[in-house]
Structures are given as C-alpha cells and as structure tokens.
Amino acid sequence: MRIAVVQFPGTNCEHETLVAVKECGMDGEIFRWNRPEQELCEFDGYVIPGGFSYQDRVRAGVIASKEPVMATLREEAERGKPIVGICNGFQVLVESGILPFGDGVRLALAQNVMIRGGEIVRRGYYCAWTMLRHDAEEKRCSGSYILRRGDILSIPIAHAEGNLVASDRKVIERLIDDGQIVFRYCSERGEIINEFPVNVNGSTENIAGICNPEGNVLGMMPHPERAFFAWQLPRKHPRVQGYGPGRLIFESMKRYIEERRS
Amino acid sequence: MIINLRVWLKIPDAEAATVKNTLLRRMGYQGIVRDVKRERLLSIEADDVSDPDSLIKQLTRELVNENKESFAVSVNSLDLSNGFVPVKVSLWIEDGEAVSIRDRLVKRLGLKMIRAVQRANIWKLYIDGDDPESVARRIAEELLVNPNKDRYEIIKLN
Lengths: 262, 158
Known about the structure:
The structure holds two protein chains of two kinds. By secondary structure, chain A is of the alpha/beta class.
C-alpha cells in the first residue's frame, strides 16, 4: 500500500506525516511537487501535509493549487483514491476546487477571527489543542473511516487562515445536507459552541474538516500527525491504546484502501 | 479626507515574481503577460485634520519601512501612471489587519482623527494584446481573488 506525501516548496510537516503513514504499516514516501506528475498514479493514496506552500503568497494554497501535480491528484480523486489534506493541504484542496464539490472554488479559508460574547477578542495566527467532534456517518469519509458519529478527538491546530467561509450560504447547507462536514470544533463534552475558544478560528458552523461528496477526499485544519503518539499529547488528554487520536485518521485511510481493494 | 498611501518594495518582490511565474509557467499566459508588479494600498479616512502634511508624515513614518519600501501619497484620489492594468484586490469580509492598523493609529499613537482604514493590493499587470482589461479580469478571477472572501476592481487610469 503506497502513500505519497506530497511536498510543495514551503511544506513543513512532510516528515512527521511520513512517520505517521509508516507507523500505520503503509509504505510511504515524500513526493516532491516537481517530479513527473504521472508517477503519482502509482500510489494508492495521498496526504498533502501542512506548512506554508509558496510562503502563502497571494493567499494560502493558491499557488500550489496551480501545479501540475494537483491536476493529477484531481484525476486520482475522481478514481476514488483517498486524499487527506491537512491544514495547508486543506487550503490547497479548497483553492484547487477539489473540495468541497470538485466544481470550482466554492469556499475560502479566511483569516482567523476569534469571537466571544459578540466581541472580536483575537485575530490571526493561533496554535492550540482543540477538541473535534466527528459529525459524519461511519465509513462516510476515507480519513475518518473507522470513527463513529459523535466520537471526540483532541488534535492541535496551528494556522492563521482556517476560518471557513462561503459567499453563498447554500454551499454550507449542501455540506450539512450531504453529510460532508466531517469534523467540528467542540467543547470537551462534544458541545458545538460558536464562541472562542471552542470555535478557535470563527469558522462557519464550527467546521474543522470536510469531505467531498464521494467521501474519498478529506480536508481538515487540525494536525493529526501532531497527535499521533501518546507522548505528543498534553498530560490531561486521554490516550488511545498508547497512541494519540491522530493515529485514527491514518488508520482510517489504511482501512479505506483495504476495503476498497477487497 | 482620504489619504491614499501606496507602498511597494525596493527589494525584489517575491510575491509578484511568483504570480508572474505561475501565470507564465502554469496558466498559459506566456507571450501575453509581460510583467507583474504589486503595491500595497492603505486608504486612511480622517476627519477634522488641521495639518494634513504633518499627519501624512506621521502615517508614513508608522506604516512604511523606508529601508525596504518606497511610497507615494495622494489625497482623495489615486494617481497611477499608465502602461499597465491596475487590479485592486481587497477583502469583502471584515479585514482584521485593517482594523488592527486603525486601532494602533488611534489608540496607541493618539491619532483620534482617523475614522477608518482600508487595505488592498494593487496588482499592476503589464499585458500585451488588444484587450488587456479582459485578460486582467480573467487573471483576477483565476488567481488573484477567491470570491468567497475577496473582491476586485480594475482601476480606471486617467
């Protein structure tokens, strides 16, 4: 099972993402953006890790979205292969139009705006542990394949532009109706509270991660590779069999590929 | 009055170079786009200004780093030269950075006459061909703008 960890200039989470992929028993390698894009077709799945592709020039993710590898990834996504975009990888998937519907740029990940009691209390870059509620049905999405609806995970964020917005409210309604909202920022008890610090970046409907209609492409702002091992977690957080909850994202991808093959 | 402060880099502008490279190498604008330059525009609205020159000096001192940036100031107008299509890109959702700049000017520097600050990028597109404006619109929509948060306008040159 071969997984490509796609690296653009400015990506900075490729190594820890690769460790996570390999730790789950998958055969991974870092795939630099300037390799012949046809070679991507040989892989069974893809992770676009976090970082600052092209230094976030113009806006986060947009320059990387024009690279030939993204056209190939779109084709592979249409073949049903799994893609997980993490943080900047999510931004690249949105700017390339692969997410949410594969038909153009329907969303933006705008600058964080933290709101409490109707007041803006903070803006911009924020780095913190967050609680996520898995809102999708079981097996709805390749990157959360083994999670059940309502599962709560603690995974950290680190970004300045994760505030998911759409100029057309119908886009959000369609995401809700079609079960494409995979993760929402929540309290420790799983409550969706549209206030900072639960909603860490002002994202519409507390959205932290979405999938495409087919479910094989997941984009999420939190970094599962930073909550992969138990030692990465703060002491107060629950452990998952010696590992952190971030492992479940990579295990999901593996299970999705296995079941798709069988 | 509205003080328009245009700021551009003296050193090479990597962002403009990236946009040019992307247009030429990835998006099929070879032979159409000759060059791309970029300026930051801060439009600062102020009331009851008794000494405009002094206010402009204070603003440029605070908002421009002359070690790496050049600037031009115009009041109630935007004086741009010819030879390119200027595409002004700004946020239509709330611009937190612009709000922070206003708060800094008013609360920290005591410039109580400042009412509002708006921020934009002016992309100066040097385009060959018969209809540069429609090419500029296409470039804006394909690369410079995400309509879910940004808006753009082509500034008419005098």
